[in-house]
Amino acid sequence: MEKKMNPIYPNSQFKSFCYIKSVITRPNIIAGDYSYYDDSDDGPESFEKHVTHHYDFMGDKLIIGKFVAIARGVEFVMNGANHMLDCLTTYPFEIIDEFKGLSRPFGDRGNRGDTVVGNDVWIGQKATILPGVHIGDGAIIGANAVVAKDVPPYAVVVGNPAEIKKYRFDKETIDLLLELKWWDKDIEEIKKLIPLLTGDLEQSKNELRALLKK
Predict the structure, then answer these.
(1) Partner of 71 for a Cys bridge, out of 91, 125, 131, 177, CB 3.0 to 4.6 A?
(2) Is 134 among the residues known to form the active site?
């Protein structure tokens, strides 16, 4: 009997992780198919609590690709957290009732644009993603990393501030995977590709080359 996708929980026996797409309510958060959040402490349904300073009037979006794995305690800090840097103080007078109307508008504090997470990305426990960051397909974000700048596809970044420790594969393999874009294929085709995607690395590289030459 064919197994069907649960609309909320990927594994019916473990309710510690859930598909993000099924629990988000904000229109300014977009999540792709099969991307999940794992949190046994607060419950995975609490994902939106970990997207902070996300105000409608800022206009920024959090966009998460397909097949993304996000671990417990990851925080996405959005543009509403920014303070003005092009003036003599960083203090946000405009949000204090006593000082309203005396400062530049709230929106002038800077907007670095949408925060974008690519496909097949793994984000480790308690990592922090800062406003406007773009994380490339296949990247890995280490636990407790603070990501303040863009991450290239298939890079592994760690630390505060996060820096590239290595790339997961050689350039040829990365280029082949970005050409394949397996995450965009029909789910039945993806199922056929799973043995290749999860098999012995060297053998899979050879099969990938052959597949794309067809």
Answers:
(1) 125
(2) no
